[in-house]
Structure formats: C-alpha cells, structure tokens
C-alpha cells in the first residue's frame, strides 16, 4: 500500500482570511503532509502564517466576487455549488478542515476522505440568530435568510456521507456531529504550541487586568464580558477584529482597551500578564484558553461547550454556570479571590500539545486509509 500523505493528498479548508484556531490546525496538518495541495474557497494573501503562505493554494470562484475578502459570509448561499466544483481527481487522500462547507467536497472514486470537523455549519444549525437574527441584519433580511439557511442545513446533512471518517476537535463537537450528521467520530484535540506558549521566566505574579483574544463576531458573546467587567469594575483588554467591533466599542467604557490583532509574541506577553483570560461564549473547543493556561494564566469561561474539557473549575480557572452578566461578573470576582497554582494551570494545558495532535491525527488518517482499502 502506498503511504498516505506522501503523494496524491489534497487538503481543503473553508477560507484563509486570518490566523485563528482553525488555521493553526491547518498549519499542523500541512506540516504532516508537505506535498499536499491546499484548496480553499477564498484566500486573503498575507493573512496567514508563512508555513501556509508558501503552500500551493487553489481558490474557488468566490475569490473573484466583489468584496469577497470582507463579505464572504454574504456569499454563503453559493458555497454548496462552489465546493462541489473543486477538482479532486487524482488525489488518493482528501483531508477537509471544515467548520462550514468544505466537508461536502466530492472526492474521486475510491479516494479516502477524512474530515477534521471544527464544527458543523454554525450559521445553518444552532447559531442562526447570532449571525442572521433581526438584531444583527434587520427583520426583513433575517426573514429572507431563514429559508436559505434551512436549505443549507439540509444540504449539509445530506452530504455527510461523502466523508469516510470524521475527526472531531472536542467531545462537544462529536455530539454535534452525531446529532446533525448521524455519524460517529473520533476526538483529536487541536494542537497548542505549548513550547511557545509558556510562563514568564521571572515567575512574577501577573495582575494587568482581564484579557480577551478573539474574533469579534456575535457568537463569542464579547458584549457579555464587557458588561460584566463594567459591573465588576475591572479593566479589560480586547485583542481581535471583526464585524462586531463598532458595536462593542460603543458598549465599552473607559476601562476597556481595543488593541486590534497582535502577533503571537505580543499575545503571549498579554497572556502572561493577565489576571485571567475570558471566554464568555460557547466554544467548540477554544484554543485561546489553552494557550493562556500554557502561559500559566487562569481562564474565566462559560461552563458549556469545549471549556468543560479544557478548564478545571477552581484549579485552572472559573466556570460560570449561566450566560448572564451577573453570573459572569461574579466569576470575575471569584477569579481575583482564588490563589491559583500557575504550575498546575500549565500542566493542564500540556494535555493539548502540538506533538500529541500530530501523533493522534496521523494515526487516525492512516487507520481511515487502511479501512477504506479493506472495502475495495
């Protein structure tokens, strides 16, 4: 049997518009399969790491639509037809890194398709109100988008059979795959660079205030964190950009700083100095809280989704039981009162190392290739 990953491999990712958690996973996959070709709906040159920029990248017709770099989500109705246009003939192994549509690509006959699923399509399933609710896009447009997204959900479920093996980024996402796709999956946690993200050498106790590192999009619920910090009378620093920025700035008081995007070295220093890092929304996994813990910083997170798998209440942070301002403000106060063991926080993060991901991911792909070969 030819060794998977050494020839005939295609890697498909939804879009390349910034270096967020999904792109860090993609970067690790690309290092495992250095000869693979990367396919994506849309690429913004210069927006991702040098490892990804150097790859052979093939884009879709979405690339050439007006304002695609900013407005790509407005083209969601075109995604089904577009992902089915990717030419994957000749590729023996297809690896999709999917949080939206690319899990539905059409592999060549006999090829093995492994989907690393960051999440089933959020917009079409349980997060429609966060992106296309009346408060976000207006009542008329929301009403127009609802049947469109319902159609996307039907297509998303109907095309799940194009995947030979699903890998989920958390137990939480594995449950969503079961619920929406009626498929099982193996959990392979995303890679966190625990060598790079590490505590400061001087061991100084940080107290620079609370920190958020996030895309500024509705489902992250950053408005909740901003209001909670106001109630608790604590300073907050926000790192990130996104369509919610204007609204969030309007909500923020004088104790909130918006820094835009920062490079990895700057973010590491912010983690090291933070009283705690905040995660007010439901995350599928959430790499930021693990990066923060690798630097010895505790996390205050909503006790739902991936945070239940990465944050240990009272040991590595605080899990807030309700998505409410009062509950989150109480969590901030509790985080300031607890005496955290920074070494224990760091030890928890080491469960999600990059090397563990590389080993488990490659083993899962090899098993999928063997299973596919056995059915021929």
Distance between the termini: 13 Å
State the CATH class of the largest domain: Alpha Beta
User: How many DSSP helices?
Assistant: 16
- Any idea of the CATH topology of the largest domain? Rossmann fold
Low-confidence stretches: 1-6
Give the number of domains.
2
Helix content: 25-40%
Furnish the topology, listing elements before pairings.
Layout: E1 9-16, H1 21-32, E2 37-43, H2 50-53, E3 57-59, H3 68-71, H4 79-83, E4 93-98, E5 112-117, H5 128-132, H6 134-137, H7 139-158, E6 165-168, H8 171-181, E7 186-187, E8 210-213, H9 222-232, E9 236-239, H10 245-251, E10 256-258, H11 264-273, E11 276-279, H12 287-294, E12 299-302, H13 307-310, E13 317-320, H14 325-337, H15 342-349, H16 354-374
Parallel strand pairs: 1-2, 1-4, 2-3, 4-5, 5-6, 6-7, 8-9, 8-11, 9-10, 11-12, 12-13
Helix pairs in contact: 9-14, 12-15
Provide a descriptive summary of the structure in words.
The chain has 376 residues and is α/β, with parallel strands linked by helices. The model is unreliable at 1-6 (pLDDT under 50). It is 39% helix and 16% strand. The chain folds into 2 domains: 9-191 and 353-374, Rossmann fold, CATH 3.40.50; 210-351, Rossmann fold (3-Layer(aba) Sandwich). Helix 9 (222-232) crosses helix 14 and helix 12 (287-294) crosses helix 15 (342-349).
Please provide a brief summary of the model:
With 376 residues, the protein is α/β, with parallel strands linked by helices. The chain is built from 16 helices and 13 strands.
């Amino acid at each position: 049997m030819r060794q998977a990953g050494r020839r005939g491999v295609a890697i498909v990712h939804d879009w390349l518009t910034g270096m967020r958690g999904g792109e860090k996973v993609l970067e690790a996959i690309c290092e495992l399969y250095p000869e693979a070709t990367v396919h994506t709906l849309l690429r913004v040159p210069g927006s991702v790491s040098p490892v990804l920029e150097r790859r052979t990248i093939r884009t879709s017709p979405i690339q050439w639509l007006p304002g695609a770099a900013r407005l790509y989500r407005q083209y969601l109705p075109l995604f089904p037809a577009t992902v089915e246009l990717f030419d994957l003939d000749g590729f023996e192994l297809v690896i999709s890194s999917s949080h939206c549509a690319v899990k539905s690509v059409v592999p060549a006959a006999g090829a093995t398709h492994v989907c690393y699923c960051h999440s089933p399509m959020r917009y079409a399933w349980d997060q429609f109100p966060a992106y296309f609710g009346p408060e976000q896009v207006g009542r008329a447009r929301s009403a127009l988008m609802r049947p469109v997204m319902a159609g996307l959900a039907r297509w998303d479920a109907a095309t799940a059979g194009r995947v030979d093996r699903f890998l989920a980024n958390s137990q939480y996402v594995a449950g969503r795959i079961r619920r929406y796709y009626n498929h099982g999956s193996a959990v392979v946690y995303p890679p966190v660079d625990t060598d790079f993200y590490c505590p400061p050498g001087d061991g100084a106790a940080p107290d620079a205030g609370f920190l958020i590192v996030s895309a500024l999009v509705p489902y992250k619920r950053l408005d909740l964190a901003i209001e909670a910090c106001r109630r608790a009378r604590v300073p907050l620093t926000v790192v990130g950009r996104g369509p919610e920025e204007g609204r969030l700035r309007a909500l923020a008081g004088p104790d909130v700083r918006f820094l835009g995007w920062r490079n990895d070295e700057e973010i590491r220093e912010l983690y090291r100095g933070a009283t705690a890092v905040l995660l007010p929304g439901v995350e599928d996994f959430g790499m930021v809280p693990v990066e923060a813990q690798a630097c010895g910083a505790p996390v205050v997170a909503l006790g739902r989704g991936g945070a239940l798998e990465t944050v240990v209440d009272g040991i590595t942070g605080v899990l807030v039981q309700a998505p409410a301002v009062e509950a989150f403000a109480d969590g901030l106060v509790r985080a300031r009162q607890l005496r955290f063991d920074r070494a224990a926080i760091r030890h928890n993060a080491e469960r999600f190392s990059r090397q563990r991901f590389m080993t488990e991911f490659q083993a899962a792909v090899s098993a999928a290739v063997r299973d596919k070969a056995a059915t021929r």
